Amino acid sequence: MNIERGSLKKDKSVIWDVLVILLYSAINIVVLIRHEPWEDEARAWLIARDLDLLSIFKQMAYEGTPALWHMLLVPLAKVFPDKSKVLLLLTTPLDSQE
């Protein structure tokens, strides 16, 4: 009988864990949809979009973030020069108003 109670407690624990993760994910999705880029985010995007690789490394002397971050942004910024289009692409499936 103790084994069954232990199993029931584990099942409730798993359910609780799943509910917490789902709530956390839902809050993050809402925040992501409503997020507006701050100056540092927009600046990193513009650097990745507008500069070539050598110029990005030269610009890093004036930036507070490492070049790796900009290198990760370069492929997206080159394919999607307008950040709003990338955000639209990412959030449209989640947005039920359109």
Molecular structure report:
The protein has 98 residues and is an all-alpha fold. The protein has two domains: 1-35; 37-98, no CATH class. The protein is built from five helices and no strands. It has helices spanning 2-34, 39-50, 53-59, 67-79, 83-91. Helix 2 packs across helix 4. The protein is elongated and about 60 Å long. It starts with a helix and ends in a 7-residue tail after the last helix.
Question: Could you write a compact summary of the structure shown?
Answer:
This protein is mostly helical and 98 residues long. It has helices at 2-34, 39-50, 53-59, 67-79, 83-91.
List keywords for this structure.
98 residues, 2 domains, elongated
Largest sheet: none
Span of the ends, CA to CA: 54 Å
Number of E-type strands: 0
Q: What do the pLDDT scores average to?
A: 78
**How much of the residues is beta strand, in percent?**
under 5%
- Helices, by number, come to 5
Q: Give the oligomeric state of the chains in this entry, treating copies of one chain as homo and distinct chains as hetero.
A: single chain
Kindly state the percentage of residues in helix: over 70%
Low-confidence stretches: 94-98
Q: Indicate the structural class.
A: mainly alpha
Domain tally? 2
Radius of gyration: 21 Å
Name the overall outline: elongated
How are the elements arranged and paired?
Blueprint lengths: L1 H33 L4 H12 L2 H7 L7 H13 L3 H9 L7
Helix pairs in contact: 2-4
